[in-house]
Amino acid sequence: MEKLYEGKAKALYATDQANEILVVYSNQATALNGKKKSQIAGKGALNNEITSLIFAYLNEKGIPTQFIRQVDEVSQVVKALKMVPVEVVVRNRLAGSLAKKFDQAEGSPLKHPTVEYYYKNDELNDPFVNASQLSALGILELETSDELEAFALKINQALIELFDAIDLDLIDMKFEFGWDSEGQLILGDEISPDTCRIWDKASQQKMDKDNFRHDLGDIIPVYQEVAQRLRSYLTK
Ligand code: UDP
Predict the structure, then answer these.
(1) Cβ atoms within 10 A of the Cβ of 145, count?
(2) Which residue puts its alpha carbon closest to atom 24 of ligand 1?
(3) 61-96 b/e with 16+ CB inside 10 Å = b?
(4) Cβ distance 22 to 75 under 8 Å?
(5) Which residue out of 89, 93, 189 has the highest number of ligand 1 atoms within 8 Å of its CB and is therefore the one to mutate?
(6) CA 99–ligand 1 middle distance (angstroms)
(7) Which of 52, 83, 189, 217 has its C-alpha lying 20 to 30 A from 148's C-alpha?
(8) Which residues in the chain belong to E strands, given as ranges?
(9) Where are the beta strands (DSSP E) in 142-217?
């Protein structure tokens, strides 16, 4: 199979269908924009399963995603997309870079969800940008930013409900979007504990990649717990 792209945690391959690609999840974990790196056995399979379950749930709810089907433990077939060059971060509570920016405690409530854009560019370290800058630099039209914001808030709402049903609080998350062959804007990439902050409702224990980022503990047992809760809620 022809390899199309190799990212930090996934590799993409061409298939015999023009508009479909195979995504293979790896065991590599990175943080600090790739400066911290480890191989963690089992991580690829867990994120592949978690993303497959969540994207199938969103597809069923009428939220269009790139996901077509899970193929095996570590791979899934997805629609080929032309990617939007920004990462979209939605937050429900303060954590991570926003908690640091305002020097406030992690977990503090926000009056309403926030939507942020980060321009995808490794050399520039994915800088924070706003819709006006994206428009003025010819990167993204204002209407597209508006569309992304509304779409991201809608997905956030669907995910809050999903995680609530399995006793997890959704603190924040990162989305990536793209245009399919018909020019429709749809959700792409992955949604997993690598790309969301999710805390156990009762204990407020972190069930996500912050355990790796800040050396708080092994990620495999917590990712397994997330997968198990999703599996029993969504496949019953
Ligand atoms: N995030 C991500 N990839 C990135 C940056 C952030 O998936 O390259 C996710 C991260 O897991 C968290 C949310 O986006 O759920 C907000 O991240 P934040 O801006 O707080 O950055 P951090 O402090 O995690 O670097």
Answers:
(1) 22
(2) 96
(3) eebebbbbebeeebbbbbbbbeebebbbbbbbbbbe
(4) yes
(5) 89
(6) 12
(7) 52
(8) 3-6, 10-14, 20-25, 28-31, 36-39, 67-72, 75-79, 82-93, 109-119, 128-129, 168-179, 185-188, 196-200
(9) 168-179, 185-188, 196-200
CA atoms within 13 A on the CB side of 67: 27
Is the CB of residue 116 below 6 angstroms from any atom belonging to ligand 1?
Answer: no
Asked if residue 93 has its Cβ within 6 Å of ligand 1, the reply is no
Tell me what pLDDT residue 34 has.
85
Cα of 219 vs centre of ligand 1, distance in Å, is 16
CB of 172 closer than 6 A to ligand 1?
yes
Q: What is the dihedral of CA 30, 36, 39, 45, to 10 degrees?
A: -20
30 lines ligand 1 (CB under 6 A): no
Residue 73 pLDDT: 98
Domains of the chain in start order, with CATH, are 3-79 (3.30.200.20), 82-217 (3.30.470.20)
Q: Say how many residues make up the chain.
A: 236
pLDDT of the chain, 236 residues: tens digit per residue:
899 999 999 999 999 999 999 999 999 999 988 899 999 999 999 999 999 999 999 999 999 999 999 999 999 999 999 999 999 999 999 999 999 999 999 999 999 999 999 999 999 999 999 999 999 999 999 999 999 999 999 999 999 999 999 999 999 999 999 999 999 999 999 999 999 999 999 999 999 999 999 999 999 999 999 999 999 999 97
211 pocket-lining for ligand 1 (C-beta < 6 Å)? no
